[in-house]
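Q: Convert this sequence to structure tokens.
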Amino acid sequence: MKQWTEEEFETLSFGDARLDRRLAILTEQLAQNPGSSIPQACGDWGQTQAAYRFLANEDTSGEAVLEAHAKASMKRMSAHQVVLCLQDTTELNFEGKQA
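A:
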């Protein structure tokens, strides 16, 4: 997992090695527990607090993380002649149904 995060964010640096390291840790935690809340993914209170501090830090930016992810995705896709970008917009409505 560590190699993946390093490759995914190789174009991103917050200018502080601690923030870069926290991004890698948080990404690994969330990737290992997709769909989990931050406290569930982080596992303990200290890691959860570190995640929230990272997200609230004015030196970090969701846009920068997304841009680095987009660049890494484009790099991966450039290795293939055809890339399918599938989307599922299915919605389920169980209103009025009994379990």
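The chain has a mean pLDDT of 93.
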